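Encode chain A's predicted structure.
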Amino acid sequence: MTTFPTIPASQLVQRLEHPGHKIRLVLDTDAFNEIDDPFAIAYALKSADNMTVEALYAAPFFNELSSGPADGMEKSYQEILNIRRILGREDIPVYRGSTGYLPASDQPVESEAARNLVERAMASDPADPLYVVAIGAITNVASALLMEPRILERIVLVWLGGHGLHWSDTKEFNLFQDLHASRLVLDCGVPLILVPCLGVASHLQTSLSELRDFVKGQGEIGDYLFETYLSCSDDHFAYSRVIWDIAVIAWLNNPEWCPSALVHSPRISEDFRWMHDPFRHMIRSVHFIRRDEVFRDLFLRIAR
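Encoded structure for chain A:
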Protein backbone atom coordinates (compact mmCIF):
# COMPACT_ATOMS: atom_id res chain seq x y z
CA MET A 1 0.00 0.00 0.00
CA THR A 2 1.47 3.34 -1.07
CA THR A 3 1.89 5.91 1.70
CA PHE A 4 1.38 9.51 0.66
CA PRO A 5 2.51 12.58 2.60
CA THR A 6 -0.24 14.60 4.24
CA ILE A 7 -0.55 18.31 3.56
CA PRO A 8 -1.78 20.15 6.69
CA ALA A 9 -5.43 21.18 6.30
CA SER A 10 -4.73 24.93 6.40
CA GLN A 11 -2.00 24.61 3.78
CA LEU A 12 -4.21 22.40 1.61
CA VAL A 13 -7.01 24.97 1.67
CA GLN A 14 -4.53 27.66 0.69
CA ARG A 15 -3.22 25.49 -2.17
CA LEU A 16 -6.80 25.09 -3.42
CA GLU A 17 -7.26 28.83 -3.91
CA HIS A 18 -6.79 30.29 -7.37
CA PRO A 19 -3.06 31.08 -7.72
CA GLY A 20 -3.62 34.75 -8.59
CA HIS A 21 -0.40 34.93 -10.60
CA LYS A 22 1.22 33.42 -13.68
CA ILE A 23 1.80 29.70 -13.24
CA ARG A 24 3.80 26.87 -14.80
CA LEU A 25 1.79 23.92 -16.03
CA VAL A 26 1.84 20.65 -17.90
CA LEU A 27 -1.21 19.60 -19.94
CA ASP A 28 -2.27 15.95 -20.08
CA THR A 29 -4.71 15.31 -22.94
CA ASP A 30 -6.34 12.55 -25.00
CA ALA A 31 -6.16 14.95 -27.92
CA PHE A 32 -7.53 12.61 -30.63
CA ASN A 33 -10.54 11.50 -28.61
CA GLU A 34 -12.78 14.58 -28.94
CA ILE A 35 -12.77 17.87 -30.81
CA ASP A 36 -12.60 19.88 -27.56
CA ASP A 37 -9.02 18.80 -26.79
CA PRO A 38 -7.47 20.82 -29.66
CA PHE A 39 -9.52 23.81 -28.48
CA ALA A 40 -8.12 23.38 -24.94
CA ILE A 41 -4.53 23.03 -26.16
CA ALA A 42 -4.87 26.17 -28.27
CA TYR A 43 -6.53 28.02 -25.37
CA ALA A 44 -3.68 27.13 -23.02
CA LEU A 45 -0.96 28.09 -25.48
CA LYS A 46 -2.78 31.35 -26.25
CA SER A 47 -2.97 32.22 -22.54
CA ALA A 48 0.70 33.07 -22.12
CA ASP A 49 -0.14 36.04 -19.90
CA ASN A 50 -1.44 33.67 -17.24
CA MET A 51 0.43 30.42 -17.77
CA THR A 52 3.59 28.88 -19.18
CA VAL A 53 2.99 25.46 -20.71
CA GLU A 54 6.15 23.47 -19.96
CA ALA A 55 5.16 20.13 -21.49
CA LEU A 56 2.31 18.27 -23.18
CA TYR A 57 1.43 14.66 -22.33
CA ALA A 58 -0.58 12.18 -24.41
CA ALA A 59 -3.23 10.33 -22.40
CA PRO A 60 -4.68 6.91 -23.30
CA PHE A 61 -8.26 6.41 -24.41
CA PHE A 62 -10.32 3.55 -25.81
CA ASN A 63 -13.52 3.98 -27.81
CA GLU A 64 -14.66 3.74 -31.43
CA LEU A 65 -11.78 6.03 -32.47
CA SER A 66 -9.05 3.67 -31.25
CA SER A 67 -8.27 -0.04 -31.16
CA GLY A 68 -7.22 0.19 -27.51
CA PRO A 69 -5.72 2.61 -24.97
CA ALA A 70 -2.23 2.33 -26.49
CA ASP A 71 -3.55 3.23 -29.94
CA GLY A 72 -5.60 6.07 -28.45
CA MET A 73 -2.52 7.43 -26.70
CA GLU A 74 -0.42 7.26 -29.88
CA LYS A 75 -3.11 8.98 -31.95
CA SER A 76 -3.34 11.66 -29.25
CA TYR A 77 0.44 12.07 -29.31
CA GLN A 78 0.36 12.68 -33.06
CA GLU A 79 -2.54 15.13 -32.73
CA ILE A 80 -0.67 17.09 -30.06
CA LEU A 81 2.32 17.33 -32.40
CA ASN A 82 0.01 18.63 -35.11
CA ILE A 83 -1.57 21.33 -32.91
CA ARG A 84 1.87 22.32 -31.65
CA ARG A 85 3.08 22.70 -35.25
CA ILE A 86 0.06 24.80 -36.28
CA LEU A 87 0.66 27.13 -33.34
CA GLY A 88 4.39 27.33 -34.03
CA ARG A 89 5.30 26.01 -30.57
CA GLU A 90 7.74 23.22 -31.38
CA ASP A 91 9.75 24.46 -28.38
CA ILE A 92 7.30 22.73 -26.03
CA PRO A 93 8.21 19.06 -25.47
CA VAL A 94 5.58 16.35 -26.00
CA TYR A 95 5.71 13.00 -24.21
CA ARG A 96 3.95 9.70 -24.84
CA GLY A 97 1.82 8.54 -21.95
CA SER A 98 0.50 5.23 -20.67
CA THR A 99 -0.33 2.42 -23.08
CA GLY A 100 -2.81 0.94 -20.60
CA TYR A 101 -4.74 1.73 -17.45
CA LEU A 102 -3.65 1.06 -13.87
CA PRO A 103 -3.89 -2.73 -13.31
CA ALA A 104 -4.32 -2.19 -9.55
CA SER A 105 -4.60 0.70 -7.12
CA ASP A 106 -0.91 0.52 -6.18
CA GLN A 107 0.61 -0.35 -9.58
CA PRO A 108 1.71 2.54 -11.83
CA VAL A 109 2.03 2.27 -15.59
CA GLU A 110 5.46 3.21 -16.89
CA SER A 111 5.55 6.02 -19.48
CA GLU A 112 7.64 8.98 -20.63
CA ALA A 113 4.87 11.31 -19.48
CA ALA A 114 4.67 9.95 -15.94
CA ARG A 115 8.45 10.00 -15.52
CA ASN A 116 8.68 13.53 -16.88
CA LEU A 117 5.95 14.66 -14.49
CA VAL A 118 7.87 13.21 -11.56
CA GLU A 119 11.03 14.98 -12.69
CA ARG A 120 9.34 18.35 -13.19
CA ALA A 121 7.37 18.15 -9.97
CA MET A 122 10.37 17.20 -7.85
CA ALA A 123 12.29 20.14 -9.34
CA SER A 124 9.47 22.50 -8.27
CA ASP A 125 9.49 24.51 -5.05
CA PRO A 126 6.49 23.53 -2.88
CA ALA A 127 5.86 27.27 -2.49
CA ASP A 128 5.51 27.52 -6.28
CA PRO A 129 3.80 24.26 -7.26
CA LEU A 130 3.58 22.86 -10.75
CA TYR A 131 -0.01 22.87 -12.06
CA VAL A 132 -0.98 19.58 -13.65
CA VAL A 133 -3.95 20.15 -15.96
CA ALA A 134 -5.63 16.93 -17.09
CA ILE A 135 -8.46 16.57 -19.60
CA GLY A 136 -8.48 12.82 -20.15
CA ALA A 137 -8.15 9.59 -18.21
CA ILE A 138 -6.00 10.39 -15.18
CA THR A 139 -3.67 7.40 -15.64
CA ASN A 140 -0.45 9.33 -16.30
CA VAL A 141 -0.90 11.52 -13.23
CA ALA A 142 -1.86 8.65 -10.94
CA SER A 143 1.15 6.67 -12.16
CA ALA A 144 3.47 9.59 -11.37
CA LEU A 145 2.00 9.87 -7.87
CA LEU A 146 2.59 6.16 -7.29
CA MET A 147 6.14 6.36 -8.68
CA GLU A 148 7.03 9.26 -6.37
CA PRO A 149 4.42 10.07 -3.70
CA ARG A 150 6.35 13.18 -2.62
CA ILE A 151 5.23 15.06 -5.74
CA LEU A 152 1.87 15.42 -3.97
CA GLU A 153 3.43 18.30 -2.02
CA ARG A 154 4.69 20.04 -5.16
CA ILE A 155 1.74 19.99 -7.57
CA VAL A 156 -1.83 21.21 -7.91
CA LEU A 157 -4.05 18.97 -10.05
CA VAL A 158 -6.80 20.55 -12.17
CA TRP A 159 -8.89 17.73 -13.65
CA LEU A 160 -11.93 17.61 -15.92
CA GLY A 161 -13.44 14.40 -14.61
CA GLY A 162 -16.68 12.90 -13.40
CA HIS A 163 -20.10 14.52 -13.46
CA GLY A 164 -21.52 17.16 -11.12
CA LEU A 165 -21.52 16.15 -7.47
CA HIS A 166 -25.32 16.41 -7.58
CA TRP A 167 -25.61 14.13 -10.63
CA SER A 168 -27.28 10.72 -10.40
CA ASP A 169 -24.12 8.91 -11.49
CA THR A 170 -20.54 9.71 -12.41
CA LYS A 171 -20.08 7.42 -15.43
CA GLU A 172 -18.09 10.08 -17.23
CA PHE A 173 -15.58 8.97 -19.87
CA ASN A 174 -12.40 10.35 -18.27
CA LEU A 175 -13.25 8.95 -14.83
CA PHE A 176 -14.85 5.72 -16.05
CA GLN A 177 -11.88 4.54 -18.12
CA ASP A 178 -9.49 4.08 -15.19
CA LEU A 179 -11.31 3.58 -11.91
CA HIS A 180 -8.09 2.82 -9.99
CA ALA A 181 -6.48 6.08 -11.13
CA SER A 182 -9.63 8.13 -10.53
CA ARG A 183 -9.99 6.81 -7.00
CA LEU A 184 -6.32 7.41 -6.31
CA VAL A 185 -6.37 11.14 -7.11
CA LEU A 186 -9.51 11.58 -5.00
CA ASP A 187 -8.17 9.52 -2.10
CA CYS A 188 -4.47 10.42 -1.82
CA GLY A 189 -4.84 14.03 -0.67
CA VAL A 190 -3.28 15.76 -3.68
CA PRO A 191 -4.54 19.36 -4.02
CA LEU A 192 -7.34 18.87 -6.54
CA ILE A 193 -9.48 21.32 -8.48
CA LEU A 194 -12.28 19.17 -9.90
CA VAL A 195 -14.20 20.41 -12.94
CA PRO A 196 -17.15 18.04 -13.46
CA CYS A 197 -18.69 17.44 -16.88
CA LEU A 198 -22.48 16.96 -16.94
CA GLY A 199 -24.16 19.71 -14.95
CA VAL A 200 -21.10 21.98 -14.93
CA ALA A 201 -18.74 22.06 -17.93
CA SER A 202 -21.68 20.96 -20.10
CA HIS A 203 -22.69 24.64 -20.18
CA LEU A 204 -19.85 25.19 -22.67
CA GLN A 205 -21.82 24.57 -25.85
CA THR A 206 -21.21 26.31 -29.15
CA SER A 207 -22.49 26.08 -32.71
CA LEU A 208 -21.09 26.01 -36.22
CA SER A 209 -22.46 29.49 -36.96
CA GLU A 210 -20.75 30.97 -33.90
CA LEU A 211 -17.41 29.43 -34.87
CA ARG A 212 -17.89 30.56 -38.47
CA ASP A 213 -18.31 34.14 -37.23
CA PHE A 214 -15.55 34.26 -34.61
CA VAL A 215 -13.01 31.47 -35.22
CA LYS A 216 -12.88 30.74 -38.95
CA GLY A 217 -10.33 32.94 -40.71
CA GLN A 218 -8.38 33.66 -37.51
CA GLY A 219 -5.11 32.20 -38.71
CA GLU A 220 -4.26 28.58 -39.36
CA ILE A 221 -5.39 27.50 -35.89
CA GLY A 222 -8.77 29.21 -36.29
CA ASP A 223 -9.39 27.47 -39.59
CA TYR A 224 -8.26 24.13 -38.16
CA LEU A 225 -10.61 24.38 -35.18
CA PHE A 226 -13.50 25.43 -37.42
CA GLU A 227 -12.93 22.54 -39.83
CA THR A 228 -12.62 20.14 -36.91
CA TYR A 229 -16.00 21.29 -35.60
CA LEU A 230 -17.55 21.22 -39.08
CA SER A 231 -16.58 17.58 -39.56
CA CYS A 232 -17.93 16.45 -36.16
CA SER A 233 -21.51 16.20 -37.46
CA ASP A 234 -23.25 15.60 -40.78
CA ASP A 235 -26.13 17.86 -39.79
CA HIS A 236 -25.55 21.19 -38.03
CA PHE A 237 -29.18 22.34 -38.15
CA ALA A 238 -30.25 23.37 -34.62
CA TYR A 239 -27.12 21.58 -33.40
CA SER A 240 -24.62 22.56 -30.73
CA ARG A 241 -21.72 20.69 -29.23
CA VAL A 242 -20.05 20.94 -25.86
CA ILE A 243 -16.39 22.04 -25.80
CA TRP A 244 -15.92 21.27 -22.13
CA ASP A 245 -12.18 20.66 -22.04
CA ILE A 246 -11.61 24.43 -22.15
CA ALA A 247 -13.17 24.71 -18.69
CA VAL A 248 -9.93 23.87 -16.86
CA ILE A 249 -8.05 26.63 -18.71
CA ALA A 250 -10.93 29.04 -18.09
CA TRP A 251 -10.70 28.51 -14.31
CA LEU A 252 -7.00 29.30 -14.42
CA ASN A 253 -7.60 32.41 -16.54
CA ASN A 254 -10.38 33.76 -14.33
CA PRO A 255 -12.00 31.84 -11.46
CA GLU A 256 -15.00 34.19 -11.49
CA TRP A 257 -16.10 32.51 -14.73
CA CYS A 258 -16.10 29.14 -12.95
CA PRO A 259 -17.70 29.52 -9.49
CA SER A 260 -16.50 26.84 -7.11
CA ALA A 261 -16.53 25.75 -3.48
CA LEU A 262 -14.46 23.70 -1.08
CA VAL A 263 -16.02 20.28 -0.52
CA HIS A 264 -14.93 17.04 1.09
CA SER A 265 -13.35 14.76 -1.49
CA PRO A 266 -16.01 12.24 -2.56
CA ARG A 267 -15.54 8.52 -2.94
CA ILE A 268 -16.54 6.55 -6.04
CA SER A 269 -18.84 3.58 -5.55
CA GLU A 270 -18.55 0.33 -7.49
CA ASP A 271 -21.51 1.39 -9.66
CA PHE A 272 -19.92 4.80 -10.38
CA ARG A 273 -21.85 7.08 -8.04
CA TRP A 274 -20.52 9.78 -5.78
CA MET A 275 -20.39 8.90 -2.07
CA HIS A 276 -20.04 11.93 0.21
CA ASP A 277 -17.96 11.63 3.39
CA PRO A 278 -17.67 14.64 5.76
CA PHE A 279 -14.49 13.22 7.30
CA ARG A 280 -12.45 13.33 4.11
CA HIS A 281 -9.89 15.97 3.08
CA MET A 282 -10.97 19.00 1.07
CA ILE A 283 -10.89 19.57 -2.67
CA ARG A 284 -12.27 22.45 -4.74
CA SER A 285 -15.16 21.62 -7.04
CA VAL A 286 -16.47 23.91 -9.77
CA HIS A 287 -20.27 24.02 -9.78
CA PHE A 288 -21.10 26.39 -12.67
CA ILE A 289 -19.52 27.84 -15.81
CA ARG A 290 -20.28 31.32 -17.15
CA ARG A 291 -20.44 30.17 -20.73
CA ASP A 292 -20.41 33.53 -22.54
CA GLU A 293 -17.38 34.90 -20.69
CA VAL A 294 -15.36 31.77 -21.38
CA PHE A 295 -16.10 31.65 -25.09
CA ARG A 296 -15.52 35.40 -25.42
CA ASP A 297 -12.07 34.96 -23.90
CA LEU A 298 -11.31 31.94 -26.10
CA PHE A 299 -12.38 33.70 -29.32
CA LEU A 300 -10.40 36.83 -28.51
CA ARG A 301 -7.25 34.81 -27.79
CA ILE A 302 -7.55 32.80 -31.00
CA ALA A 303 -7.95 36.04 -32.94
CA ARG A 304 -4.72 37.53 -31.57
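The chain is about 35% helix and 15% strand.
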